C-alpha cells in the first residue's frame, strides 16, 4: 500500500515540475555580438576586394605532375615505372636483377627487429606501435579562440 502512495506522490511531483518548467519564461541569449562602435570601426582594417581562391591544382593533378618528369602533360611507361625501378633497385642488394625472399623481406625483418625492444623474438602491444607507418603531418591552421575576442570586448565595454 505504501508503494502505491509513494508512487502517486512521485508522479504528482513530476507533473508539478513539468508545469513549472513550461510556464517559466525563456531567457534568450543572442549568440551574435553587439555591433562595434564607430570609433572601433575606424581602427579596423578594410576587407579585401576579392575572395581568396584555392589553388587550381587538385590532389590528382599534383600526383600526375610527380610522375610527369618532362612536363609534357603525358606520362610515358618509363616515367610511370621510374619510381618502381628505384624501389626495386634499393631492395636488390646483390644487384643480380632478381629479388630473393630475404632481399624482399629485409624491410619487414628490419622493422620487426627495431620494434622488438626487449629482443625476445615477440612483440608486445606497446612494441607493435612502433611498426605503424609514419604519416606526414597535416598542415593545420589554428584560429585564435573566440573567448579572446569576447574578453577584449568586455574590457573595452
Automatic annotation (TrEMBL):
<keyword id="KW-0808">Transferase</keyword>
<keyword id="KW-0418">Kinase</keyword>
<dbReference type="InterPro" id="IPR011992">
    <property type="entry name" value="EF-hand-dom_pair"/>
</dbReference>
<dbReference type="InterPro" id="IPR018247">
    <property type="entry name" value="EF_Hand_1_Ca_BS"/>
</dbReference>
<dbReference type="InterPro" id="IPR002048">
    <property type="entry name" value="EF_hand_dom"/>
</dbReference>
<dbReference type="GO" id="GO:0016301">
    <property type="term" value="F:kinase activity"/>
</dbReference>
<dbReference type="Pfam" id="PF13202">
    <property type="entry name" value="EF-hand_5"/>
</dbReference>
<feature type="domain" description="EF-hand">
    <location>
        <begin position="91"/>
        <end position="104"/>
    </location>
</feature>
<protein>
    <submittedName>
        <fullName>Histidine kinase</fullName>
    </submittedName>
</protein>
